[in-house]
Amino acid sequence: MSTVARDVGTRLRRLLAILTWLAQVGETPIEEAAARFGLEPDALVAELEMAACCGLPPYTPDQLMEIVVTDTTVSAHLGEMLARPRRLSAREGFALAASGRALLAVPGSDENGALSRALAKLDRALGGKSMVIELDDPTMLGVVRSALESGNQLQIEYYSASSDEVSSRRIDPLRLFAGDGHWYVDAHCYKAGDERRFRVDRIQAAEILGGVASEPREAPEGAAYEPFVPGPDIRTVRLALDPSVAWVVESIPAVTPPEQTGDRIEVDVAVGGDAWLKRLLLRLGSAAQVVGPPEAASLLGDAAGQILDRYRRSLPG
Amino acid sequence: MERLDRLERVTDLLLVLLDTPQPLSLREIANRIPGYPSGRDARRQAFERDKRLLRDEGVPLLVEAIGGEEQLGYRVDPGHYYLPDLGLDPEEQAALNLAVAGVHLGDPSGVDALSKLGATGESPLRPLVDTPLVDLPSVEALPALPGLFEAVRLSATATFEYRGAPRQVDPAGLRFRGGHWYLVAFDRDRAEGRTFRVDRVTSTPSVGPPGSAELPPGFDAESAFSAEPWRFGAGDVVAVDVLIDPVEAGRVVAELGSGAVTERRTSGAIVVRLSVTDMGALVTWVLGLLDHGEVLGPPEARAAVIDRLESLIGAGEGSGGAT
After folding, report:
1. What's the CA gap between B106 and A271, in Å, rounded?
2. For residue range B146-168, what is the model confidence (pLDDT) as tens digits?
3. A222 interaction partners in chain B (CB closer than 8 Å)
4. Are residues B220 and B243 in the same domain?
5. Are both A241 and A181 inside the same structural domain?
6. Which of B32, B56, B145 has the CB atom closest to A9's CB atom?
7. Domain-embedded: residue B121
8. DSSP B1
9. What's residue A73's pLDDT?
10. Could you give the percent of chain A with pLDDT greater than 70?
């Protein structure tokens, strides 16, 4: 067999899905059926040959499944018992409800459209109406979407959280997506001369320019979107973390696997700008220390001093 | 014929139990299905393993009392095994296809669900270029999520481990906000509504029978929900005013909602009022604004920020020579 036979539960689930699907589509090329269920063609055939022995007592031919495998195609004639789709599993029910509700949460979605009606039917049949998905609706989302849809350039004022600076940029929007609950736009940035990712709620002002975006728009790949993209200005800072904040390692762009050093965990972190590192150090307090380089060691003290100045300048309100 | 493949036995078992209108005893099952060991204990053991496997795969296997020597009979309830007809029209089906294509969950369950709903021969699902994509946290990274959804869907109690302590709750709903999934529920031991962050649920939830959850009369999932970290404390509620500079105002409004804004200044700065039960968590959030935010009052909240900053300056000096 070319594919490893995994646990029986996984195989059963897959077999039942294959049979139901075959019952619906009729005769199908083996290659296509195998690809759909992530199997090598000969592994698919082996599973189906096994299934052809299953059925109801007394296991006479009329009580077995009729599965026909030719050199290139496969078909199955099954009783109602296997042709009818199974109830959705918890994961499938969740995935369907979450996908539908996430798309409805995109600002401007039609709340009475086909998707809403489909979800209402799902809820009625399966339950699950008590799921709420909220996505941000930042002020500049509308103008970014219009520019993207019309293929126009944008002039934006952008507050960069990693450098703590506001800059003026001309961009060609390429794609828009929501990740970790926030909206991002990927764009060709003329100031950087390269593609950059912008958080829409940090765009302070935006104006559609007459110019047509030069970059061709490309359909996004299926890969998940990471809010953090390492750019060219990245430098590496080594941190020593107390085990109580070891969770940080999961949520920061670490560039090497963490190492245990005495009772601390040391990790190299990709830093896109001082302001980002300042925020991280302020949040972690005494649970994190900068190991190096030396010029990064004073960042926490500097940041805390800068904020403290603001409190000293102003009177309590 | 020698039977080597347990999948064959389990598939036969499923078919026989689905087909039978009457519950079957283990002896009747073993008579109908080849492949069970002949010894009584070994047979029982093998059957129990198969039964657990079917249940783990979501098969509604019923155990019912029957007369006679064996006392227990088994069958599968077809009413709960098959997907009910949802009556989706082609437009609704297409809308669901688009939703599954446009939302990333890091897991093929959505596509599996669509094929059960009859999305069969079509070309591979692709999002429309003009439709924004939504990336939700991967279900792989949140193993408790489908179980909690199931509990909400079935109005069933859920028991799980949360931050190292066992919790028994009556779920009211699931909610996604700010990049995190939350369960809103009535906590039985604490006798009040609570919000649980799903990524902090550390065990697979055990879900009670359908309908076992009982929310107190008038329970309002909306008002029991709070995602802000400064609302997770046990202390008294303190109303804290925070001044936000223009550069961060848009982001903060998007995060907290415009209801939190109590003042809009001509400069573009805003003042937000927050209900705080965990002052430490509030200070951490405010420091994330760097010097673009300032707690205006009350005085004890300002003092909490200043204390934290002074201790950080001390710590920063201490670590300077770490190279």
Report:
1. 26
2. 899 989 988 999 999 997 789 99
3. 104
4. no
5. no
6. B56
7. yes
8. -
9. 92
10. 88
B127/B55 same-domain check: no
Q: What is the CATH number of the domain that holds A257?
A: 3.30.70
Q: For residue B318, which of A304, A231, A99 has the smallest C-alpha distance?
A: A304
In this complex, which of B19, B92, B316 lies closest to A298 when CB atoms are compared?
B316
Instruction: Measure CB to CB from residue B294 to each of A8, A131, A314 and give the nearest one.
Output: A314
**ipTM for the complex?**
0.79
Which pLDDT belongs to residue A8?
86
pLDDT tens digit sequence for A286-312 = 888 899 888 888 888 889 999 999 999
- pLDDT tens digits, one per residue of B280-299: 999 999 999 999 999 998 99
Look up the pTM and report it. Answer: 0.78
Closest-CA residue of chain A to B140: A91
Domain count within chain B: 4
- Chain B residue with CA closest to A146: the answer is B130
CA atoms of A141 and A201, how far apart (whole Å)? 8
* A217 within domain boundaries: no
Which A-chain residues 262-301 have CB contacts (< 8 A) with chain B? Answer: 275, 278-279, 282-283, 285-286, 289-294, 297-301
Interface test with A, best of B134, B155, B174, B310 (most A CBs within 10 A): B134
Examine residue A271 and state whether it is found in any structural domain, yes or no. yes
Residues 6+ apart with CB under 8 A from B23: B62, B63, B64, B66, B72, B73, B74, B75
Q: Verify that A239 and A301 share a domain, yes or no.
A: yes
Range of the domain at B119: 90-136
Q: DSSP states of B90-142 as a string?
A: HHHHHHHHHHHHHEE-SSTHHHHHHHHTT--SSPPP---TTSPEEEPPPGGG-
Residues B146 and B124 in one domain: no
Asked if pLDDT for residue B51 goes beyond 90, the answer is yes
Boundaries of domain holding A25: 8-83
Q: Is the pLDDT of residue A82 over 90?
A: no
Identify the residue among B83, B199, B212 best suited for mutation to test binding to A, counting A beta carbons within 10 A and taking the highest.
B83
Residue whose structure tokens are 């007459």? A210
**Structural domain total, chain A:** 4
